[in-house]
Fold this protein.
Amino acid sequence: FLFLYKIHNYMHNRETTQQTTTKKETKKERNNKKGMDLNGVRWSSDEGCFSIVEGSEFWVYNSDPLELIKRTDVGGTLSFAQLHGRTNIVFLVGGGKDPLEADTVVCIWDDLKGEIVYKLEMKSKVLNVFVKRSRLVIVMFQIVAVYDFPGDPFPTKITEYETCPNPTGIAAISSAPNRNVLVLRHTHVSDAFVCDIGGTSRSQKQQQQQGDMICKCCKGEIVQLAITADGNMIASTSQKGTIIRVFESKNGQLLYDFRRSLLSTALRSLRFNRDASFICIASDRTIHVFHLSSETQKSRQRAFASFETKSQCLCALGRGRPKIIALSEDAQGKVIYFDVVTGKETGDGEVYSLCKRSRADIFCLDVEKWKMAHYGQDHNHDEALSAALKKVSQSPTTAPTTATPQQSSATTTTTTSINTINANGTTT
């Protein structure tokens, strides 16, 4: 009996030790696993670069080639950081445990000075921000506000739209410099509202190239919206996530009807490529690419190419050689090249670790890595923004000014200028 009792205790202790070791290893693996909040990722207007928020820092990466440009600590936790192209101006919204500012305040950060130069207070929580060379769009829960940027006086509100409840800040704006077409959710959850928010000329800032249009996109609730660079086409997906529809932005005519799958799933990203020849969508752990041919096809089409991912991700289509830029929640950036004829992956993709800390990453601005700027930029915009920010900087105090939505003008205490690195490496 004593012998059997000892054997029983020995086997019991052995099983307990193995279970404890397994639990420790699992916990260790969980702690070592690097995660990334996809809600804190924002692309620039032309998708040439993107930002990632991690605590009080925002990281800026070049999209093609995929590489780190800069990392900045702003001293307070952030919800997201929206880049103004490749300039030194970044729009920050606070969030998290120790927020930089309230989530109703949009902070304009000058990265060359390393400080906030302006604060814009909104009516409710800011969920998304879009910025172009003459327009600033701020998305809230049921309101979308459009500002002339930089405006005279700064800031100048152009208009405001009421939407249905929009907790994820869904909206999209055309990225071409000569078109400012905005698509957002309408007051009904299945409708999209398309509007032209004016030309880029300072003297003709209310000029519109097309009228407003309400598009019946789907039967269920819209969860993703996308628009082409020229603003001629919009795309939408519903909460079910099985169908992607593409419409003409001027009249709402259905152009393409694509089927992603028969199974419902959560969709994370929907984007056109630059020349509107492809559209990609990221679901739970799959990326689908659909081909937009020259002829409209209303019959339901399947995906041109599909790629599996290890975790949820966001995606965009790169320029030049056909490729997908995928940013996954396990802090991995992957470039997937595919064949335009077969749709198959070519196998020579790249994998990049995102938000990887090292001493060499801590610098304010690397001019060489900012050479991939927009070609043929309008330098009058840079001068206009500098003049506008200087004009509202006459106050002798030292604290930055907060403007409420009702104010038509405001003062700020610091002067700043917008700087852009041109393709030849010169700074303007």
Observations:
- Residues 2-32 form the longest helix (31 residues).
